[in-house]
Amino acid sequence: MPVRTALFADPDRTFCWRLKTLAQNSGIVAEVCMTAEEARRALVTSSPMLFVSNMRLGGIKGRDLVHLARMANPKTRAVLYGTTADMVLVKMAQDAGAFFEPTAFLPYALKQYFSTTLPPKDRRDPSRPDRRQRFRG
Question: Which residues 6+ apart lie within 8 Å of 125 measured at CB?
Answer without folding.
Answer: none
